[in-house]
Amino acid sequence: MKIVVIGGTGLIGTKLVTLLRERGHEVIAASPSTGVNALTGEGVAAAVAGAQVVVDVANSPSFEDAAVMHFFETSSRTLLEAEKAVGVTHHVALSVVGTDQLQASGYFRAKLVQEQLIEASGIPYSIVRATQFFEFIEGIAQFGTDGNFVRLPPAYMQPIVSDDVAALLADVATASPVNGTLDIAGPDRIRMNEFVGMLLGSKNDSREVIADPKATYFGTPLEENTLTPIGAARLGSTRFEDWLKR
Fold it and tell me: Whole-prediction pTM value?
């Protein structure tokens, strides 16, 4: 198949493009750096021409409320219109577990709008909601740092490594559309403060992690299970402690 990966030069996109090419598909790694800009529309029509599948793993360069809403709403409309014009038969989008429960955040309000546009587009689709990536746990630690302490909500997480995200996305992209949402996650369900404690311990970082029920997740309050899948999920195989050792 011809598969276009929007955001094809980023963390997930690069890995996904490689996997799909190894499986014998014709893959376009689409991003502004390769002349395809879903926000402005530059190069989009040419990129999706003849494609059966489009996978959107692009992320907003700004997380400011208005900017992130503009990014996801505009880029999604641009892509979906171009796909309808050429008869794309499967639109795959990477989203986030807990999106509909995190609507106090402008970022997640924008992700929900993106999902709703896809659902209403008439194009067969699969929305893949992933948990947080291993690679971004350090960012959570930085946000919660207060002097020599890291204050984090004791909510459960089930993070996943980017390699497993890409592999699961490749499976979804090359299968029939689910016309719905599916969750992917890592194998370990542990509280956020414990994950961050494992990370800091592996780096001999002296900061003390404190479970603080009043702490937020990048400014957004959490319930205990907001960041974990509800019901069945497809699981990656890589455990956090094994990834830390590597």
Answer: 0.95
